[in-house]
Design goal:
Largest sheet: 8 strands, parallel, barrel
Structural class: alpha/beta
Mean pLDDT: 94
Low-confidence stretches: 292-298
Bound molecules: zinc ion
Shape: globular
Distance between the termini: 19 Å
Strand content: 5-15%
Radius of gyration: 18 Å
Strand order of the largest sheet: 1-2-3-4-5-7-9-10
Number of strands: 10
Oligomer: single chain
Helix content: 40-55%
C-alpha cells in the first residue's frame, strides 16, 4: 500500500479528494472499507479521542491492519482531533498513519508553538507520519445542534494559515472556511445545507501550498464540496451523517425484528445503510475537478 502522503499527492494531481469517515463501532468499521473496496478508491478511517477511548486505540489499529492485509485495499488510519501530545503518541505507537493535533481552542501563538513541538516529537517516532494542525473555529461535537454556532469571526485567513504552516511544519492544515462540526436539525431533514467560502480555500491553498482538510462536511452542499476540491481541499471529513444513519438504521432494524436478539441478524442492515452513505460520498469526492496546480503537491 502507498503511504498516505503518496495517496494525497496522487489525489491532488487527479483533482479528487480522499474521504475520511469516523468510526465508533464495528458496523462503521465494516461499512467504510466495504464502500471503498466497491469503488476501488483509497479511504481514511478516523477515530477521535472519544471514539478511540470506546473502541480502543490499539484495537482499531489492529482491525485496520487486518482489513488491509485481507483485502489488499488502501485504508489509512487517522487519529482525529487529538488534544494532547500523550494521546497523539499513543496513536502513533499503535500504528496510526496520521494525527490531527488540534489545539485550535488556544490562542494562535500558543497553538502554533505547541503544534510545532508536537510535529517534532511525533515525527521522531515515525518520520512518515502526517501531522495535521488546525486554526480557526469550526465548532465542536459531530452531533445534531439546536442552533448554529457563531463561526464567522473564526474563519481562517490566508496570512495566518501561511504563518502557521511555515512555523509548525505541519503536513496538513485544517482551516475554517464555512465548515462546521455537527449538523442542524434542518440539515438532517435536508431543508438547509452548509455553504463554503471557496475563494478563501483557494487563497489558503496558494498561501500555504500544503494539503488541506475540510472538517465537519456532513450536510454540506454537494456542488460546494466539488468546488472545494477544485480549490485545493484534499481530505473531506464525514462523521455526523454516519451517526444519524447508524441510529436510524439501528432503530429500523430493531423494530422490523422486534423479537430478534442475535446481533449478526440485526446489524447487517445497519452496515448496509452506512455503506450506502459512504459510497455516495466517495463517488462525489472522486469525481475529478479541475485539478489544483501540481506544483502545490508536497
Ligand atoms: Zn473534525
Amino acid at each position: 500500500m502507498r503511504s498516505l502522503r503518496e495517496i494525497l499527492s496522487d489525489a491532488q494531481n487527479r483533482g479528487v479528494a480522499v474521504g475520511h469517515f469516523n468510526v465508533s463501532d464495528l458496523t462503521m468499521l465494516q461499512a467504510v472499507p466495504a464502500a471503498a473496496r466497491e469503488l476501488s478508491v483509497p479511504v481514511l478511517v478516523g477515530a477521535s479521542e472519544g471514539e478511540r477511548a470506546f473502541l480502543g486505540t490499539r484495537q482499531i489499529a489492529a482491525l485496520v491492519r487486518a482489513l488491509r492485509e485481507q483485502y489488499d485495499c488502501e485504508i489509512s488510519l487517522n487519529a482525529d482531533h487529538t488534544h494532547s501530545l500523550a494521546k497523539a503518541e499513543e496513536a502513533v505507537i499503535a500504528g496510526f498513519d496520521s494525527v490531527v493535533f488540534d489545539l485550535s481552542a488556544l490562542p494562535f501563538e500558543a497553538n502554533a508553538q505547541q503544534t510545532k513541538q508536537a510535529v517534532e516529537a511525533l515525527k521522531s517516532r515515525n518520520p512518515s507520519l502526517l501531522v495535521e494542525g488546525e486554526i480557526g473555529d469550526i465548532g465542536s461535537g459531530s452531533e445534531i445542534h439546536d442552533r448554529a454556532p457563531e463561526l464567522a469571526r473564526g474563519l481562517t485567513t490566508p496570512e495566518e494559515a501561511r504563518q502557521f504552516v511555515e512555523f509548525t511544519r505541519v503536513d496538513v492544515l485544517a482551516p475554517a472556511v464555512g465548515n462546521m462540526h455537527g449538523m442542524l436539525a434542518s440539515m438532517v431533514g435536508g431543508s438547509a445545507r452548509k455553504r463554503l467560502d471557496i475563494d478563501r480555500i483557494r487563497q489558503i491553498k496558494a498561501a500555504t501550498g500544503s494539503f488541506l482538510t475540510l472538517h465537519g462536511a456532513s450536510g454540506t452542499d454537494s456542488m460546494d464540496l466539488c468546488r472545494a476540491i477544485g480549490a485545493g481541499i484534499n481530505i473531506i471529513h464525514i462523521n455526523t451523517e454516519l451517526r444519524v444513519t447508524w441510529r436510524r438504521a439501528l432503530e429500523d432494524s430493531l423494530s422490523a425484528q422486534a423479537r430478534e436478539v442475535v446481533p449478526y441478524k440485526i446489524l447487517p442492515q445497519v452496515v448496509e445503510s452506512l455503506k450506502q452513505v459512504v459510497r455516495a460520498r466517495l463517488e462525489l469526492f472522486n469525481q475529478p475537478q479541475s485539478a489544483a496546480p501540481s506544483e502545490l503537491a508536497s
